[in-house]
Design brief:
Number of helices: 11
Distance between the termini: 15 Å
Strand content: 15-25%
Radius of gyration: 18 Å
CATH class of the largest domain: Alpha Beta
Shape: globular
Order of helices and strands: EEHHEHEHEHEHEEEHEHEHHHEE
Structural class: alpha/beta
Strand order of the largest sheet: 1-7-6-4-5
Number of strands: 13
CATH architecture of the largest domain: 3-Layer(aba) Sandwich
CATH superfamily of the largest domain: Thiolase/Chalcone synthase
């Protein structure tokens, strides 16, 4: 028994923020952003809409693709570090908006969130007790960005992606998942304010502690090294070769990071599905958004071997190998 992805879905805001738009507000340029990140535009959630709205929209699309009713779900896992509010879990709000009556909980592993959620969803299905699990990766980081910091505000976009998992006894499905973490590197990428360490006060707001703080060089080095290592672990664990991988659906954080991963794993960049130019870094949503696009446009076909890998704040990172 293993789990198989029965359907995929995505939801992205209609508002597009281009590099040209950012040129008007911070000291940057389209050429500078593209050269260093590969990003040309990103989506920004409209006022009045929330993380759970995006998650529910992506969930509905995945459920429709899987030909599954919300009432058939046994669990909903929402992977996010930008929920509607600290309490309750974003997943229960998504459950209510979908009209489901199942277990629902959040997972916080930042940009590695979807891989972590896929691993947990896969484990639930493998027990035999859960037959339909919805895994959603969703972030609204635009509301946690310091729009005066050109090193971070150019990177992030909003969006959601989802998959429905179900049991499979054939060769298709999630072959393995591999999860890692190193808390010693946590200071390199944080949102310091809002928790018990720095509760919301006038001082934390003035110091912009509720916005993303990042050591770009440190994150870059760890991302290339650990995403590459996790990718090779998944390949070796299943007795296949890098050349056997059909597509790499990796976290879309920075094009230069993916180029570095391609070099270290000896997987050609032509095998990497890329959409970072249009969406930027959507954190835990990036892999399921890319997966949905690749499935729906016919890039991914039955029998393809997919490698998923990501690293996020924590640091948390991981990989999965999937036979489509």
């Amino acid at each position: 028994m293993r789990s198989r992805i029965l359907g995929t879905g995505k939801a992205v805001p209609s508002r597009v923020l281009t590099n040209a738009d950012l040129e008007k507000t911070v000291q940057t340029s389209d050429a500078w952003i593209v050269e260093r990140t590969g990003i040309r535009e990103r989506r920004i959630l409209e006022e009045g809409r929330t993380t759970s709205d995006l998650a529910a929209d992506a969930g509905r699309a995945a459920l429709a693709a899987a030909e599954t009713e919300p009432s058939a779900l046994d669990a909903i896992i929402v992977c996010t570090v930008t929920p509607d509010m600290p309490l309750p879990a974003c997943a229960v709000t998504v459950q209510q908006k979908l009209g489901a009556t199942c277990a629902a909980f959040d997972m916080a592993a930042a940009c590695a969130g979807f891989v972590y959620g896929l691993a947990v969803g896969d484990a639930l299905v493998r027990t035999g007790a859960y037959r339909r699990v919805l895994v959603v990766g969703v972030e609204v980081l635009s509301r946690h960005v310091d729009w005066t910091d050109r090193n971070t505000c150019v990177l992030f976009g909003d969006g959601a992606g989802a998959v429905v998992l179900g049991p499979s006894e054939g060769e298709r499905g999630v072959l393995s998942t591999h999860l890692f973490a190193d808390g010693a590197q946590a200071p390199l990428l944080t949102i310091p304010g809002g928790g018990t360490a720095h509760p919301p006060t006038a001082d934390t707001l003035e110091r912009r502690l509720h916005s993303v703080k990042m050591n770009g060089r440190g994150v870059f080095a760890h991302a290339v090294r650990n995403i590459a290592r996790a990718s090779l672990v998944a390949i070796e664990a299943n007795g296949v070769r890098p050349e056997d991988v059909t597509w790499v659906v990796a976290h879309q954080a920075n094009l230069r990071i993916l180029e570095g991963v391609a070099e270290k794993t000896r997987l050609p960049l032509s095998k990497f599905y890329l959409n970072i130019a249009r969406y930027g870094n959507t954190s835990s949503a990036s892999i399921p958004i890319a997966l949905d696009e690749a499935v729906r446009d016919g890039t991914i076909k039955p029998g393809d071997l997919l490698l998923m890998s990501a690293l996020g704040a924590g640091f948390s990172w991981g990989s999965a190998l999937v036979r489509w």
